[in-house]
From TrEMBL:
<keyword id="KW-0067">ATP-binding</keyword>
<protein>
    <recommendedName>
        <fullName>Thymidylate kinase</fullName>
        <ecNumber>2.7.4.9</ecNumber>
    </recommendedName>
</protein>
<dbReference type="GO" id="GO:0004798">
    <property type="term" value="F:dTMP kinase activity"/>
</dbReference>
<dbReference type="InterPro" id="IPR018094">
    <property type="entry name" value="Thymidylate_kinase"/>
</dbReference>
<keyword id="KW-0418">Kinase</keyword>
<keyword id="KW-0808">Transferase</keyword>
<feature type="binding site">
    <location>
        <begin position="11"/>
        <end position="18"/>
    </location>
    <ligand>
        <name>ATP</name>
    </ligand>
</feature>
<dbReference type="GO" id="GO:0006227">
    <property type="term" value="P:dUDP biosynthetic process"/>
</dbReference>
<keyword id="KW-0545">Nucleotide biosynthesis</keyword>
<comment type="function">
    <text>Phosphorylation of dTMP to form dTDP in both de novo and salvage pathways of dTTP synthesis.</text>
</comment>
<dbReference type="GO" id="GO:0005524">
    <property type="term" value="F:ATP binding"/>
</dbReference>
<dbReference type="InterPro" id="IPR018095">
    <property type="entry name" value="Thymidylate_kin_CS"/>
</dbReference>
<dbReference type="GO" id="GO:0005737">
    <property type="term" value="C:cytoplasm"/>
</dbReference>
<dbReference type="GO" id="GO:0006233">
    <property type="term" value="P:dTDP biosynthetic process"/>
</dbReference>
<dbReference type="GO" id="GO:0006235">
    <property type="term" value="P:dTTP biosynthetic process"/>
</dbReference>
<dbReference type="InterPro" id="IPR039430">
    <property type="entry name" value="Thymidylate_kin-like_dom"/>
</dbReference>
<keyword id="KW-0547">Nucleotide-binding</keyword>
Length: 207
């Protein structure tokens, strides 16, 4: 293993992204790599505004939310202290829980997909993931898991919206299949099985 990769996890809410990020981090560290895990919305002040909107502490139009994600993502990449580009330069393998495919899927359920892709083009031109890992679960499974683990339901967490978002993910993955590396995995299996499948797919990419 020599190359340090940038890996993005994608999927609807509750698909198991953070579980899989952790399992992959453990495997990569056991293989001797330095691993930096991160997420969007980020922990930055812009990310905090987004979280406040999602938890209903603030209100904002969907177009404002789309713009905030564009800014949050650019800071995620370019931040001089812990930006993804800096961490890659320092030799870390970087795993992010969500990246621009999340905007393509979630924001395009409320506005034009091409606008969302254009608005994120600065990020896409700066850094494309070596692989986007898409974990697929049904919106019904998602709602089941969210109900178990949450005390409140966030802005986009309704059955109908998650159905739309999942459809958008498939639409945009097809649209961009020639320019993006995408690995799809069935998230309706036990976490270890999914993790092993992801590992089998990723291992060769490090050589
Ligand atoms: N493969 C799986 N099968 C069943 N439940 C899972 C699986 N992976 C994660 N979970 C559970 O589903 C919930 C959401 O998982 P999480 O990893 O936080 O998803 P996400 O980061 O995509 O929202 C958590 O309660 C987690 O324990
Ligand atoms: C990164 C990103 C997230 N989101 C949404 C998806 C989630 O509903 C919400 C919070 O993301 P996240 O904390 O990853 O939620 P979960 O763990 O439930 O998947 O932000 C967007 O709408 N656009 C984006 O670009």
């Amino acid at each position: 293993m020599k190359k340090n990769l940038f890996i993005a996890f994608e999927g609807i809410d509750g698909s198991g992204k953070s579980t899989q990020v952790k399992l992959l981090k453990d495997k990569l560290e056991q293989a001797g790599l330095k691993v930096y895990t991160t997420c969007e919305p980020t922990e930055s002040p812009i990310g905090k505004i987004i979280r406040d909107i999602f938890t209903h502490k603030m209100e904002a139009d969907h177009r404002v939310i789309a713009g905030l994600f564009v800014a949050d993502r650019l800071d995620h990449l370019l931040n001089k202290t812990n930006g993804i580009i800096k961490m890659l330069e320092e030799g870390y393998t970087v795993i992010t829980d969500r990246y621009y495919f999340s905007s393509y899927a979630y924001q395009s359920t409320h506005m034009d997909l091409n606008w969302v892709i254009q608005a994120n083009s600065l990020s896409a031109n700066l850094l494309k993931p070596d692989v986007n890992v898409f974990i697929d679960i049904t919106p019904e499974q998602s709602m089941e898991r969210l109900k178990k683990g949450r005390t409140s339901i966030e802005l986009y967490e309704t059955l109908e919206n998650l159905q739309n978002v999942r459809n958008k993910y498939f639409e945009v993955m097809e649209l961009l299949q020639s320019v993006e590396e995408i690995f799809k995995t069935n998230g309706n299996r036990d976490a270890e099985t999914i993790s092993n499948e992801i590992w089998n797919n990723l291992e060769r990419r490090f050589n």
